[in-house]
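Handout, page 2. Input:
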Amino acid sequence: MDEVYINQEADSYVMEADGTLDLGVLQLQPGTIAINGKKVLVEMQTSRAKRTFADIQQKVLQITTAGSEANPLHIRGALLAASAPEQLTHEALSSKLRTLKGHVDNKVVDQMVQLFAAAIPLAGQELLSEYYDLAKASPLTHTKDVLRREQGLVFNGAFVAGAPSRAVLLIAFKNGAKPVLCKFTAEATAVDHEYSVLKALWQEPAVPGIDNNNNNLQAFQLIVARYLLGPSLQVKHCLQMPVYPATLQHIPAAMQESVILTFGRQLKTSLQNVHQKGYGHNDVKASNIFITATGKRQ
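Output:
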């Protein structure tokens, strides 16, 4: 079974001109679809709602705010068997990557599959190329060995925080006990820049509500691993950071208004500080907002 939450403003693509809902884009078996727990509201052949949205809202659900941003519709149903993405074999993936990159390293392809297995079947050429670059930037056997010997880091898989974009986050254990996150980027110096920005942001905060305690920065560490592989010098940069319980993307879609306002105020304060220090984020999204155990954003 699969479930989604939709509202009129964010998901207008399901609204038809005649006032009905077209749920075909959700790729669910029509006979299994339930809207807020109510079944038999969808045509078996077309996945279109039998009644207008207004009629469902007022007469079936009897909730005038149903489908709004504050009270989204809960759509639940079994996925269509044909909707499962085709799985690429390792050789087919390598072949596809060779047409994009010219040359590929099979070890990097293996790493790519480990990190992005769920996303690869749905990825277009541009994303596949990005995933390969990120897998190449993440630590392979030699880098892991150097980081274990020199930094006491033992890696234990990926930290799943939504669709990967500009970085790979891996969970590691520091000195055999303390869990940390290690961030690797396709462009090695990107984490260097991020660390320098963090230092600037936590010095003499410009707006109220930002903690300038040095413990914030001490929880982060810039790590550079250097080693010889054959005749060439290999250099890997990573940003060590705390492990957070979740990102905002993990929070259920239907949040209470008080929770939304709390996160909104914290995000506004953070961005104020960023802007007043002369920086811009350029990638604000739910998967980039980490939530602490106390419910505060980072």
